Amino acid sequence: MAATGNKYRDRCKEARSCGDVKNVPATRCSRDVFYNILPCEGDAVLDHVHAKLTSTKNPVKFLCWGEDAAQTWEQCICRAVFEDRTWEDLLIKWHSHGGKKTGLEKAQAVKEVIEEFSKGRAPVKKAFEKCFAFQADGEKAEPLAAQFVKVENTLPLRHAGRCGMHAKQRNMENAIETDPFLKELLDMLIRNKGDHRGKALGGLCRAVKNRERMRMKFTAEVERELDQLGKDLEELGEFWNGPAKMPTGRHTMASAPQRFDSLLEGLRSILLNIRGVVCFLVKLGTEWAQDLLRLFMRPEFEAALPALAEFLEIGRRYVHKDEGHDPDKSNLTNSWSDFLDMKKDLQKMFRGDEDRPPLLASGKYTKGYYQLMQKSLNSLGDSVCYRTGTGAALFHRAHPTEEQEAASLALILKRMQVVCEVFFEACEAELLMARAAALLLHATSSPWPS
What we know:
Layout: H1 2-17, H2 31-53, E1 60-70, E2 73-82, E3 87-96, H3 103-118, H4 122-127, E4 131-136, H5 141-151, E5 159-162, H6 164-176, H7 180-191, H8 204-210, H9 212-235, H10 262-271, H11 274-284, H12 287-296, H13 301-319, H14 332-350, H15 369-378, E6 383-387, E7 393-398, H16 402-444
């Protein structure tokens, strides 16, 4: 790389000496010229943005302030909506917040950012008087920051809301936590944090993700059991219609709050690898592993895990409708239809109707998570029991009777129906708030040209 860079620099130097400026990249000059060019380019871009915000030919109708933070860095952006109904996202500042994350500190930072961005130009600063809305990703300090910004008259806010994707994801997670068993399931399989100095390893996904040796053993066990699964099903005259290669990578075992799809990916990794997971925990044999195996032997587990995965799968499609924040794809016009489609899919999955049973329990849903998990577990035999060297049972499973399977499914379906109703109510409230905010902004801003 260094040699290639030196040759490229020499070619640029030769081109400049010959007067061939056209073929010399502006940023590939001497060190001094390079560092002089960057501030000039930044000033030119800033002047261009200022000209848009202060334009009289196509004036700004209103602005929406947005913030998002990642570790020590914070991004402040504005969406500008112009009179001709076009819009543009403008980066106001990308800066290190230095650990200042309280509501008051965030509000003070907004004032400082606007002052720095305006460069002392009164017309630019005046443009922010049309900033009527505040959107953020949902940290608890951010709605409070919006209130401080409004009270201090930094921005004349009339609405403080949350990012649509974050709001939907949070509604989905909150709905799951209303059921104690589903919450325990997520905690033990994914969300629990481990003690690095103690025996508590946390959730299964976190433990596998954070320990390289454990992840290598897990992957080896899963691949071995996948190969054996195909052979066992072939002897039974069946075939495996799940994924040909199971997801076991580090990214599939990661999870964090508000990280989209991470809960689903973690559950999929366990569900589709259930044979390998059981064998891995049996060979591990620690108290932590035995706690997980006891969870697996609870009667409602085999229906609850796939039901939860189906709920997150359908919810995932709904959450990602707001991806990119493109108003042409996600707006008040189609948000209600998206919500109704999601509601219909969840009711079809867990409630069914008079003519059709819930899709979760339907034998025709051959690629459903419940059907795949049952096929994987049933391939172990009618009755399987793993024991320690002393004869103590670590994991035992007998093939459930039709009555037992129907009872456990009915129980989980009822629980999932309650979870769905909580989710529906929260989503509907968000939609009503968004519609009210849009009407407020429309009524209080200057009228659009006819």
